[in-house]
Design a protein that fits this description.
Blueprint (H helix, E strand, L loop, with lengths): L1 E6 L11 H8 L4 E6 L12 E2 L9 E2 L1 H11 L11 E11 L2 H8 L3 E5 L9 H6 L4 E6 L9 H12 L10 H4 L18 E2 L2 E2 L9 H19 L7
Parallel strand pairs: 1-2, 1-6, 5-6, 5-7
Antiparallel strand pairs: 3-4, 8-9
The chain binds 6-chloroguanine (6GU).
């Protein structure tokens, strides 16, 4: 998969060089490039933002550099299923979920547009929608200063679903949210630590009993912490 990120902080994405995703990049499963939006400005001050029409607080990102960036990075743009998907992180977007991560993991080319300030001039998305698939996506109901942290989280969630990135594919399905429930508690050696015992069923060798106990723990935890995930 190829991932392009447009941002005014390309150095921010150095974190993607490390750990599992770093390995995926070295092995060629994942090709990630962060691009400085300012390379598509033409004035001496490399201006990317301006005051909002209609007034109000903050600054809005001007459309021209974004238009040039998207032209350059998605010359093959196509509203059908073949071209890249433009993902715009915004607290005003649809919610990013495990199922959306799975959908994006099946794509060949993702293009992330990181806004700062009060966002990007709305015509950028309006125009992009005429030539490619566009998704405005939010991590959750809170506000970040810009899209960079959100995009890092999304790339980690998407990247680990690309076949070959996570060594043991079973560790993908045994996670919170993969089956609509939170995950069960895990334990390792020693069996007693600071007077706390590992639940005896896990030492029983009875695989059916272990599976039933884990499922019960998942349902109980989900009911307690995230009842919104359970069917009514
Ligand atoms: Cl995707 N962007 C920003 N700026 N804030 C957020 C967000 C995204 N998701 C939650 N808060």
């Amino acid at each position: 998969m190829r991932i392009d990120i447009v941002t005014i902080f390309p150095e921010f994405f150095g974190v993607l060089d490390i750990s599992l995703l770093g390995k995926a990049r070295t092995s060629g499963l994942l090709e990630v490039q962060a691009h400085d939006l300012r390379q598509w400005t033409h004035d001496r001050h490399r201006t990317v933002d301006d005051t909002p029409y209609g007034g109000g607080a903050g600054m809005v990102m001007r459309p021209e550099p974004w238009g040039e960036a998207l032209d350059a990075l998605a010359p093959d743009a196509d509203v059908s299923e073949n071209g890249p998907v433009l993902i715009v992180p915004t607290p005003a977007g649809e919610r990013f979920t495990q199922s959306l991560a799975r959908e994006f993991a099946a794509e060949k080319h993702l293009l992330f547009a990181c806004g700062r300030y009060e966002g990007i001039d709305s015509r950028v998305v309006e125009h992009a929608e005429t030539r490619m698939r566009v998704r405005q996506v939010s991590l959750g109901d809170y506000v970040l200063n810009g899209g960079e942290v959100a995009v890092t989280a999304m790339i980690e969630a998407i990247g680990r679903l690309i076949p070959g990135v996570v060594g043991n594919p079973e560790s993908l399905t045994e996670e919170s949210h993969e089956d609509g429930l939170l995950e069960y508690p895990s334990y390792t050696k020693p069996s007693v630590w600071r007077d706390l015992e590992v639940p005896p069923v896990l030492l029983s060798g009875n695989h059916a009993a272990i599976a039933a106990w884990r499922r019960e723990q998942q349902v109980e935890r989900t009911r307690r912490v995230r009842p919104d995930l359970l069917p009514d």
